Amino acid sequence: MDLPEIPGVFRWVAFAVVALHLLSLVPLLRRVRRSEPGARAERVLDLVDSASGVTLLVGLLLGSGVLLLVGLAVMGVVILVKGARLLRVQRQA
What we know:
By secondary structure, this protein is mainly alpha-helical. The protein is about 85% helix and about 0% strand. The chain contains three helices and no strands. Helix 1 (about 10-35) packs antiparallel against helix 2 and helix 2 packs antiparallel against helix 3 (about 65-90). The chain is flat, with a radius of gyration of 16 Å. The mean pLDDT is about 90.
């Protein structure tokens, strides 16, 4: 898969965004470790969603179609699971 070339300045800005995104994973990981078992699933989904966003962005920056597709696939699964959980809660209410 040939991805379009990203100009140098935008690439460095995007790498800075990836670095900030990776730093934002630390508080999410801490929340997962401190959470109760009932709330842990939702926080793990948030963590995986954020990590898949990093994978997607890195795949785009490096021009790797495989990483890009993996990030999209994982993000799609997380969104699907979150939607199913939301529907289940609404039906129970």
